[in-house]
């Protein structure tokens, strides 16, 4: 378990970045104050029926605010990047030397779709903060993903585009050390109604006998399991593996989804928070501010142990 307070290297990195954060926060506050002042002047002048003086008087502080915020933009970007590479990167190295974070990389959309976990192809796709490494013998990686699809709604003013989440959270992938002949999918049981429609249009045809009946009653209440190969699905989902997946799922707020495909195991963790982001108006020296990020790092790393993926009962062909 990674401990922030006892990590001297991490504390030194935070102390150095805190100076930069204070400078950026001070400049941004100044910019926001002038922007607010400009808006207040414009509103007040319009209410007093002086629209032309309002436009002139209000634009001066507003333009100055824009210049201030523009000038600090590069420093802000560099600070956020340094936070991910130096702070999160140091935290990862403290847990395992093999772990690295690449802020501008993620899990590409074609791999997202190839997991076969998700019900629709995204029309808008964003991914960042790729973390990769090894836990024992097992290679793994995960990244934040936000995938959306769009619908067109006809209104009296024309067509309006609406965006809907397909998935927002962390997508985790690990080497399962076995070449799968088929595909095995686990989805939350409450999505049963949407599954049949999805499988009917999926790239892989599961057929009429794709549903897998498993002996673990709690597992069957939590997940619906589909597979192209019933025997292989039961070989993967041993009684011990089902118990481990249930234990893992109990530590999450929303039910996870999993797939076993192309010798990898994918786990989708729905999350609402954006992790690994540098604060601007909160100090980096608060011992609690990294708690949620550290918890996620530890949780993802420990999945390998929780699911016992380092036990090599199979070998790849």
TrEMBL record:
The keyword Transmembrane applies. The keyword Transmembrane applies. The chain crosses the membrane at residues 31-48, 54-73. It holds the Pfam family DUF3137. Keywords: Membrane, Transmembrane, Transmembrane helix. It comes from the Bacteria. This is DUF3137 domain-containing protein. It comes from Pedobacter rhodius. The lineage of its organism: Bacteria, Pseudomonadati, Bacteroidota, Sphingobacteriia, Sphingobacteriales.
């Amino acid at each position: 378990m990674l401990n922030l307070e006892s990590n001297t290297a991490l504390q030194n990195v935070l102390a150095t970045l805190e100076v930069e954060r204070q400078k950026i926060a001070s400049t941004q506050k100044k910019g926001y104050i002038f922007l607010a002042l400009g808006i207040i002047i414009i509103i007040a002048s319009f209410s007093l029926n002086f629209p032309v003086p309002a436009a002139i008087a209000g634009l001066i502080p507003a333009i100055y605010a824009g210049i201030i915020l523009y000038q600090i933009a590069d420093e802000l970007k560099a600070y956020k990047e340094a936070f991910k590479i130096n702070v999160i990167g140091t935290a990862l190295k403290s847990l395992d030397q093999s772990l690295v974070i690449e802020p501008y990389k993620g899990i590409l959309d074609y791999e997202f779709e190839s997991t076969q976990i998700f019900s629709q192809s995204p029309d808008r796709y964003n991914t960042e903060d790729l973390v990769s490494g090894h836990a024992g013998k097992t290679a793994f990686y995960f990244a934040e993903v936000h995938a959306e699809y769009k619908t067109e709604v006809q209104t009296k003013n024309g067509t309006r585009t609406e965006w809907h989440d397909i998935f927002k959270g962390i997508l985790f992938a690990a080497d399962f050390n076995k070449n799968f002949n088929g595909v095995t999918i686990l989805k939350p049981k409450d999505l049963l109604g949407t599954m049949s429609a999805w499988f009917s249009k999926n790239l892989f045809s599961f057929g009429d006998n794709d549903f897998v009946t498993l002996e673990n009653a709690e597992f069957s209440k939590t997940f619906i399991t589909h597979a192209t190969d019933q025997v292989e699905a039961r070989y993967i989902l041993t009684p011990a593996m089902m118990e481990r997946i249930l234990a893992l799922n109990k530590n999450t707020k929303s039910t996870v989804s999993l797939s076993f495909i192309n010798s990898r195991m994918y786990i989708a963790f729905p999350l609402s928070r954006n992790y690994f982001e540098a604060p601007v108006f909160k100090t980096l020296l608060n011992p609690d501010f990294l708690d949620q990020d550290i918890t996620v790092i530890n949780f993802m790393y420990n999945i390998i142990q929780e699911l016992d993926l380092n036990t090599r009962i199979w070998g790849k062909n």
